[in-house]
Design goal:
Belongs to the G-protein coupled receptor 1 family. With 310 residues, the chain is mostly helical. The protein is built from eleven helices and three strands. It has a three-stranded mixed sheet.
């Protein structure tokens, strides 16, 4: 419920006020977003159409690419359009929707990465029972729970934010609507609300971090009993996953597990994990994964053959 809310829209200061730099940012964001859509769509289509990629690992990779696409789409299109505007405004309702979708798909990505670590742990530590433990029904339930948990996380964030009164000013020193810069505009003491928001995000980050670290400690301990080739293949897959975790997890932890203070670097860090990471993830998983590359080649070959037969 909104309390004494006289603000109907917010003004976003963006990344820069320089017209030339705005045009450069427009090109950068547009190319990054198109690259994200292309890369993740290619992975999604490849996994859906390839029988060779039917293992649980690729089931989770499918949803990671889907969450990447949705996460970036919650931010990028508006940022691209705003880069050409002299004054950037966003309505109160659109701001709340952006925060909700942003945290929904961001949380989903964190949980999918956690499930992928658990999947690798089972695959390496229990190879003979892997397919029975991580069967399609179990994987589907785990992903469904990740969606539900993400929805709960985002709903809590929005509920706590909507209880605050906003009566002016309405200028957000950011290029998107997010919790920390928005809390600074509330016409009341936000200490308790901020503590609850940080606890919500902090619990998610800490729980995910503990599960991730525990999984990889078990994996590294288990690899001692594998052959050199088995260790090489397992480590190659794990390194790809750890790289993605670091690229996404570290910036998010820095932004959302501290008190409501803002730093000059916050905007660039946010750009990195909202625009950069969804673009890099497909490259990391395809360049280091022979099975995905082979499946993509077969998919491309089939398309060329079908086009030539027309």
């Amino acid at each position: 419920m909104l309390l004494n809310n006289n603000v109907t829209e917010f003004i976003l200061l963006g990344l820069t006020q320089d017209p030339v730099k705005k045009k450069i940012l427009f090109v950068f964001f547009l190319l990054s977003y198109l690259g994200t859509l292309l890369g993740n769509s290619l992975i999604i289509v490849t996994i859906k159409t390839s029988r060779a990629l039917g293992s649980p690992m690729y089931f989770f990779l499918f949803y990671l690419s889907l969450s990447d696409t949705c996460f970036c789409t919650a931010i990028a299109p508006r940022v691209i359009a705003d880069a050409l505007q002299k004054t950037i405004t966003i309505s109160f309702s659109d701001c709340i929707i952006q925060i909700f979708s942003f945290h929904l798909f961001g949380c989903l990505e964190v949980l999918i990465l956690m499930l992928m670590a658990v999947d690798r742990c089972v695959a390496i530590c229990k190879p003979l029972h892997y397919m029975s433990i991580m069967n399609r029904r179990v994987c589907s339930v785990l992903v469904a729970l990740a969606w539900v948990a993400s929805g709960v996380h985002s709903s809590v964030q929005i509920f706590l934010t909507l209880r605050l009164p906003f009566c002016g000013p309405n200028v957000i020193d950011h290029y998107l609507c997010d919790l920390h810069p928005l809390l600074k505009l509330a016409c009341t003491d936000t200490y308790v609300t901020n503590l609850l928001l940080v606890s919500n995000s902090g619990a998610l980050c800490i729980m995910s971090f503990v599960v991730l670290m525990f999984s990889y400690v078990i994996i590294l301990h288990s690899l001692r009993n594998h052959s050199a080739e088995g260790r090489r293949k397992a480590l190659s897959t794990c390194i790809s996953h750890i790289t993605v975790v670091i690229l996404f997890f570290v910036p998010c932890t820095f932004i959302y597990t501290r008190p409501a203070t803002t730093f000059s670097m916050d905007k660039m860090i946010t750009v990195f994990y909202t625009i950069g990471t969804p673009l890099l993830n497909p490259l990391i998983y395809t360049l280091r994964n022979a099975e995905v590359k082979n499946a993509m080649r077969k998919l491309w070959s089939k398309k060329l053959i079908s086009d030539n037969q027309r």
